[in-house]
């Protein structure tokens, strides 16, 4: 699995999956292991159950999560790529912290669309000890996330977003102060487009036609009217209202072609600074945008205030 070497240097999965270690920690995984043409141990990534069991083993082995499961149909995220976002956010925060990676519960992170898997809070609190607040519009997702927190005795705040058109409104409270917000937005504009994207992905991998979504996904997780650009544009618009409560706002951007229009929107928003951070994951390149309304001197002051 040498193609994983491009993951973030601090990513525990940069050398691939250690199946001997994973099976030792989670014996149930062994039933899902297969050998690839090179004789290496792997799992069938088209098999929803195999992917879920692999995630369970990864979270237990690397992030001390003793219990993890999600209801059928919810997005089952690939752990290595997801945790890369966390590591690059840590680098982003270090830029405002004398290049020191900030650690500890005084660092507050807001995860928009945290999902049933709770993957960002679980990995982020394990790697850096940050305090996470997870937000979702789906009652099933919140219920699943609460169950994971209760079984693992984790202090992760969970908030329901009751208004689908709102992103920050209604969940950021007047007394809140966040060092970073993060989001993996729905990137398709319709369910039809989401299905086409899945078929295209399997065709590119030489798997032919498959109606199975190996990583699952509810409607709100995969698509929204107007797709990714409209969702992030709304996020940028609403972020103005909370300019003095959040140090960095960020969002994944799945399509490179969307960066240019999003940059135009950001410039009109009166921000102080923005960055585009690229993340290489095997043969795929992903990215996130980050923006702040605070000047450099204000950022250090904010960090001290938010940490009290």
From TrEMBL:
It is found in: Cytoplasm. The keyword Transferase applies. GO terms for biological process: rRNA base methylation. The keyword Transferase applies. Its main location: cytoplasm. It comes from Parasedimentitalea marina. GO terms for molecular function: 23S rRNA (adenine(1618)-N(6))-methyltransferase activity. This is Ribosomal RNA large subunit methyltransferase F. Specifically methylates the adenine in position 1618 of 23S rRNA. Its EC number is 2.1.1.181. Belongs to the methyltransferase superfamily. METTL16/RlmF family. SUPFAM superfamilies: S-adenosyl-L-methionine-dependent methyltransferases. It catalyses: adenosine(1618) in 23S rRNA + S-adenosyl-L-methionine = N(6)-methyladenosine(1618) in 23S rRNA + S-adenosyl-L-homocysteine + H(+). It is an enzyme of class 2 (transferase). GO terms for cellular component: cytoplasm. It holds the Pfam family Methyltransf_10. PANTHER family: RNA N6-ADENOSINE-METHYLTRANSFERASE METTL16, SAM-DEPENDENT METHYLTRANSFERASE. Keywords: Cytoplasm, Methyltransferase, rRNA processing, S-adenosyl-L-methionine, Transferase.
């Amino acid at each position: 699995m040498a193609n994983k070497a491009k993951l973030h240097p601090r990513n525990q999965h940069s050398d691939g999956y250690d199946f001997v270690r994973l099976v030792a920690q989670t014996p149930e995984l062994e039933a899902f292991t297969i050998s690839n043409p090179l004789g290496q141990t792997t799992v069938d990534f088209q098999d929803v159950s195999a992917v879920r069991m692999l995630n369970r083993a990864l979270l237990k082995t690397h992030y001390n999560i003793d219990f993890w499961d999600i209801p059928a149909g919810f997005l089952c995220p690939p752990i290595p790529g997801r945790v890369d976002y966390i590591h690059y956010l840590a680098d982003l925060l270090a830029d405002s912290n004398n290049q020191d990676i900030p650690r500890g519960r005084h660092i507050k992170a807001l995860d928009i669309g945290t999902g049933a898997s709770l993957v960002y809070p679980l990995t982020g609190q394990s790697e850096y000890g940050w305090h996470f607040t997870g937000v979702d519009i789906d009652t099933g997702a919140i219920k699943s996330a609460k169950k994971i927190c209760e079984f693992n005795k984790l202090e992760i705040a969970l908030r329901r977003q009751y208004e689908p058109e709102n992103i920050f409104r209604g969940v950021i409270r007047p007394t809140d102060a966040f060092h970073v917000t993060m989001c993996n937005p729905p990137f398709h504009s319709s369910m039809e487009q989401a299905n086409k994207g899945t078929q295209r992905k399997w065709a590119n991998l030489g798997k032919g036609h498959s109606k199975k979504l190996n990583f699952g996904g509810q409607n709100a997780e995969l698509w929204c009217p107007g797709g990714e650009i409209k969702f992030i544009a709304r996020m940028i618009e609403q972020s103005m209202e909370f300019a003095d409560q959040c140090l960095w706002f960020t969002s994944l951007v799945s399509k490179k072609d969307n960066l240019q229009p999003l940059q135009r929107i950001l410039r009109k928003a009166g921000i102080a600074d923005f960055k585009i951070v690229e993340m290489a994951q095997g043969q795929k390149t992903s990215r996130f945008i980050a923006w702040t309304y605070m000047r450099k001197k204000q950022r250090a002051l904010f960090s001290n205030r938010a940490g009290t």
